[in-house]
Amino acid sequence: MARETLNREQIVRAAIELLDAEGIEGLSMRKLGQRLGSAATAMYWHVGNKENLLVLAADEVWSEVRLPDVATVGWRTAARELMYAARELCDRHSWLVRVITSYAAAGEGLARFQERAYETFEAAGFRDADLDWAVSTPFMFVTGLAIMSSSDAAEVKKRAEQDAAAQPEQEAQAVAQMNALAAKYPRLGASMAAQAQRGQGFVEQVDEVFAFGVETILDGLTARLAGRSGASE
Amino acid sequence: MARETLNREQIVRAAIELLDAEGIEGLSMRKLGQRLGSAATAMYWHVGNKENLLVLAADEVWSEVRLPDVATVGWRTAARELMYAARELCDRHSWLVRVITSYAAAGEGLARFQERAYETFEAAGFRDADLDWAVSTPFMFVTGLAIMSSSDAAEVKKRAEQDAAAQPEQEAQAVAQMNALAAKYPRLGASMAAQAQRGQGFVEQVDEVFAFGVETILDGLTARLAGRSGASE
DNA sequence: ACCTGAACACCGTTCAAGT
DNA sequence: ACCTGAACACCGTTCAAGT
Asked: Which residue ranges does the Swiss-Prot or TrEMBL entry mark as DNA-binding (chains A, B) (predicted)?
């Protein structure tokens, strides 16, 4: 616990702990300062500002991710493993996906991950601009799914349910609106009813949606490769 | 301009205007109150709180979206048009994608859109849980891409560049880091160099990435349909 | 080189009090 | 039923002053 001076690494580590524990809205410079036994404003010297601190934290966690060996498992398995690894990372650090604004603006941790992605899709047979696009497509899907299933989202939902439970009048109104929508939009209603009958909420379904989406995209990429001559090695 | 009392619709409309003009960080209850000529706290009676106001605003803009006629254009075209329409909506309202936490928690505007999506993928031949997943997959991709290319992201980037320009020392450091990454991660470096040579930044590429991703996913869904017996009508 | 404390300009939200 | 104003408990950030 004893330490001479603050440093950047230490601040980033503490920020990640706080983010993991309390989510993106739980991080404030004052709380972080308290955690580090410093004035809230001490961090500005080391990390510039809060936004930059978030970028540093995001890059740091990217380097946790385990990378497949493309040469031994083949491109399709490697691509699948990269997608699952990215999703798992977003799951473990629910705030990560909210920090990612642009993959381009990043450091060592993400670069390492991206390089392996390039290697993977190059092995598949993609070249030049096609290669860029093939790398991007799966990770836009992962990002979108992570946004939907981030625990921030889950927390918002839980809170909404608690509020509703606390105010039975509002709860009843929400149910009435749901029923009205289900009646007006029959396919949506049927899907909701089926999910309710299976006892599946969004959380249970999300793993299956992810698996479906991953295979769909891999199939789609395979189809694009097949649509060319001599593209695959 | 003269009006008797505030109402929910009016508040939501003003919020959308403010959000479109200044982005999600430009919306505050105080500014909104000012715009409406009311006390900042007057809105609480009508919309409960800020989060709920954002949800109402998001649902409102969803009803702007134009829906294709599945019966006349066929499922593949309809699916493509739904994806393009959703992306265009996210482009026009850069804050939308940041408000969407879960598609499930929504109202009339989104329900209308989703119903057409269900209709589209049902026409393609998907049923039951597969239908849910087929509907979800494209929109997770759209969401992910919208996140990356949201003008909030663009603004963050622009601001970073301005900061860098103002502080040439930092600028030089950033360039040095980029070069170091490009050297360490050759495929990434090659891609960056190629993009620079083509004079393409992220903004120019994103339309092409989107087009590629859309066709990839449509191909992937087609492949999944073909993998079954009698699934397609 | 590194840190503190006060200060500035904001936030969302509650709530008694008004009409 | 609807609105106001003051107040509370927060924010991120700057900057002079200290060591």
From this structure: 28-47
Our measurement of CA B26 to C1' C9, in angstroms, reads 15
Q: A166 in contact with B at a CB cutoff of 8 Å?
A: no
Residue-wise pLDDT tens digits, B43-60: 999 999 999 999 999 999
Q: Indicate the burial class of B169 (C-beta count within 10 angstroms; 0-12, 13-18, 19 or more).
A: exposed
In chain B, domain spans: 8-151, 152-203
- Residue A42 approaches strand C within 7 Å at CB: yes
Please say whether the beta carbons of A181 and A84 come within 8 A: no
**Tens digit of pLDDT for each residue in A45-75?**
999 999 999 999 999 999 999 999 999 999 9
The token pair at A14 is 């503490």
Token pair of B147 as six digits: 């996140």
**Would the pLDDT of B152 be above 90?**
no
Partner residue opposite A133 with nearest CB, options B153, B184, B208: B208
Distant-in-sequence, close-in-space partners of B55: CB < 8 Å, separation ≥ 6: B99, B105, B106, B107
Q: What is the pLDDT of residue A115?
A: 97
Torsion angle of C-alpha atoms B196, B202, B205, B211, degrees rounded to 10: 160
Residue A206 identity: V
Cα atoms in the 13 Å half-sphere on the side-chain side of B118: 19
Contacting B residues, span 2-31, partner chain A, CB-CB under 8 Å: none
* H-helix or E-strand spanning residue B225: helix B202-226
Q: Indicate the pTM of the whole model.
A: 0.92
Cα distance from A11 to chain B (closest Cα, Å)?
Answer: 20
Amino acid symbol at B201? G
Task: List chain C nucleotides near protein: any atom < 7 Å from a Cβ.
Answer: 2-6, 10-15
Closest CA to A90 of A22, A177, A152: A152
The two structure tokens encoding residue B49: 């709180």
What is the DSSP track for B142-205?
A: HHHHHHHH-HHHHHHHHHHHHHHHH-HHHHHHHHHHHHHHHHHSHHHHHHHHHHHHHT--HHHH
Place of tokens 């239908």: B131
Candidate CATH numbers 1.10.357.10, 3.30.420.40, 2.60.120.10, 3.40.50.300; the one for domain A8-151:
1.10.357.10
**B209 → chain A, closest CA residue:** A133
Q: DSSP class of residue A26?
A: G
Among candidate residues A210, A225, A49, A169, the one with its CA nearest the CA of residue B141: A210
